[in-house]
Amino acid sequence: MINSIPSVSVAYVQSGSSTKANALGMSPMQERVYERRGEQYLLIKSPPASGKSCALMFIALDKLQNQGLKQAIIVVPEKSIGSSFNDELLSQFGFWADWRVEPKWNLCNAPGTDNGGKVKSLGAFLLGDDKVLVCTHATFRFAVDQLGVAAFDDRLIAVDEFHHVSANPDNKLGVHLGQFIGRDKVHIVAMTGSYFRGDAEPPMSWKAKFW
């Protein structure tokens, strides 16, 4: 015999305002983030699939065009997430520019190892005129180890899935970000669905604006 299990159903009034785009094609969350685009250190905390990637694109384009930064480096935890930062025709929805990543600079799709050819590619990018590169956390860590913190001066570093970074001194990405903040020559945008980790390690603490 199967016993019936009570359940509760709750319906909420929905206005649609959380998904309605503004004149630049931004959702309300993206618009709130864009209003803080001038911040040097910014943490975007928003649920999965809420548009954090596009929010970063809007910010990065402004920093490259209007805030004097040379390049933007997008750092993701694994190769599959790199596709979240593929080309986006933002102008189609009202923004003043499109998001473009040259295929050779999406290192998530490139052959080679994180500590070999991909680091050389990142070094070549830093010396060139192209504006946007996407790589994994691992590639970025090895690149900072080999090239040094100063090689990234005057650039935007965007870290996706920021909860992977902890305050543990053995967390290399956290150590590198601390060095960047100490040098104070880059802009950093961190993105995460949750600022808390599933283990006992404390998350990295830094002087970011939370939105």
UniProtKB/TrEMBL annotation:
Q: Which InterPro entries match?
A: DEAD/DEAH_box_helicase_dom (IPR011545), Helicase_ATP-bd (IPR014001), P-loop_NTPase (IPR027417)
Keywords from the UniProt entry: ATP-binding, Helicase, Hydrolase, Nucleotide-binding
Origin organism lineage: Bacteria, Pseudomonadati, Pseudomonadota, Gammaproteobacteria, Methylococcales
Pinpoint the Helicase ATP-binding domain residues: 33-211
In Swiss-Prot or TrEMBL terms, this protein is called DEAD/DEAH box helicase
Asked if the Swiss-Prot or TrEMBL record annotates the protein with the keyword Endoplasmic reticulum, the reply is no
Source superkingdom: Bacteria
Entry GO MF terms: ATP binding; helicase activity; nucleic acid binding
